[in-house]
Amino acid sequence: MVLLAGAGGVLIGLYYNSIDPLMGMTPGIKAFVAAVVGGIGSIPGASIGGFLIGILETATQAVGLSAYKDAAVYVVLIIILLVMPSGIFGKNKKEKV
Questions:
Q1: Is 38 within 8 Å of 87 (Cβ atoms)?
Q2: Does residue 80 contact residue 37 with C-beta atoms inside 8 Å?
Q3: Distance between terminal CA atoms of the chain?
Q4: CA 70: distance to chain centroid?
C-alpha cells in the first residue's frame, strides 16, 4: 500500500511540476468525509459516500456555484451526521454503561 501511495505522490508531483507538503490535504479530507457519510467501518458505505460526494460536487458546479462545491460537501456531511450519526450504512451500536 505504501508503495502505491508513494508512486501516486511522485506522479502528482510530476504532473504539477511542484511539491508542497499540504498538496494532498483536500483529497484526504474528502476521503474522510466520504467514509463518514457512508459509515465508518463499511467499505461499501465509503464507496457509496464517495460516489455521492462526487455527484454533489459535479451538480454544484453544473448549477454554476463552483466556488461553493466544498461548502456543499460539508453541509451535506453536517446534515447526515445530524440525521444519521453512524452514516448511511453504519450500524447503530448501543453501549452499556
A1: yes
A2: yes
A3: 38
A4: 10
Four-point Cα dihedral 62, 65, 67, 68, nearest 10: -110
Within the chain, what is the greatest distance between any pair of CA atoms?
54
| Residue 60, pLDDT score | 93
Q: Taking the CB of residue 64, how many other CB atoms lie within 10 A of it?
A: 8
Please report, for the chain, the start and end positions of each structural domain, with discontinuous segments joined by +. Answer: 21-83
What is d(CA 72, CA 67) in angstroms, rounded to the nearest whole number? 10
State the pLDDT at residue 51: 92
Q: Which among 34, 35, 71 has a CA at the least distance from the CA of 54?
A: 34
CA dist 12 and 23 (Å) reads: 9
Residue with cell 501516486: 8
**Mean pLDDT value of segment 39-64:** 88
Query: 66: which DSSP letter?
Result: G
| Type of residue numbered 31 | A
